[in-house]
Amino acid sequence: MIHSSPVARSLVATCALALVLLAGCHRGEKDEVKGSPEFIYKSAKQDLDNSNWQAAVQKYEALEARFPFSDPAKQGQLDLMYAYFRNRENESAVDQADQFIRENPTHPRVDYAHYIKGLVYFEGGANWLERFFHADITKRPPQEARQSFQSFQTLTQQYPKSPYYNDARQRMIYLRNRLAEYEIEVARYYMRRGAYVGAANRARGVIETYDGAPSTPEALKIAAEAYRKLGIQDLASMVDGVRAQNQLPEDLSQKSDKHWWKFWN
User: Fold this and answer.
1) What does the alpha-carbon distance between residue 44 and residue 76 come to, in Å, rounded to a whole number?
2) pLDDT along the chain (265 residues), means of 10
3) Is 209 helix (H, G, I), strand (E, B) or coil?
4) What is the dihedral of CA 215, 216, 221, 227, to 10 degrees?
5) 3 DSSP assignment
6) Distance (Å, rounded) from C-alpha 105 to C-alpha 158?
7) How far is CA 61 from the centre of its chain?
8) What burial class does residue 119 get, using C-beta atoms within 10 Å of its C-beta: 0-12 exposed, 13-18 middle, 19+ buried?
9) How far is CA 67 from CA 35, 74, 128, 233, in A?
């Protein structure tokens, strides 16, 4: 007869207890999502409506895993991307939206997937602390703003009758101005460094790409000054003529850098 040591017996007991606990957790998860796809969807939707984002995510994920081809699962895919978004799981929200768009290009609500993608990137442009302190984010490379603009642009171009069209358009205007202001910030930097070709190109890009943005007058001003510095007087005069013809005030795009927390300015 083989006798085990106290250490071995303790190890076996510990492993057995761990297995029991894991089995209990597993059973608990099954109990939470058991039922028909309609039942699971209804339960998840209640959590979503009650802003219980984490619980909603778990149930929608279980619904998709257990009943992937059911009608509730299809609707659940749309709800899940929103639950991810509200639960601050931005990468999962974008992945879910991309998957839905890829697998359901003709779905009547595919516009919603584009809208959620736009919202995720839109909200990712500045964190809550920066928004609270009204921090100037125009100096930050606007990668999220570009991605958000592209998603909203796809929505408005491909689905002009979408219920999200008007909101997307308003957000695009904000994003256009945000992107234009960043380009102006870069052009200012180039002017300070004496990189006049770069400054002129950035200013011209604002004029051509973000027509109508509040930064347009300053873009024209920078372009004219850069051309003069480069000795290209004909282009400088042409830009001055455009400014005069359109009567664009130089201070239209100027914004105050005075914030209460920048008391040293």
Assistant:
1) 8
2) 46 45 42 81 96 96 94 94 96 96 95 97 63 47 89 97 96 94 95 96 93 91 95 92 71 37 24
3) helix
4) 120
5) P
6) 11
7) 22
8) buried
9) 11, 9, 37, 69
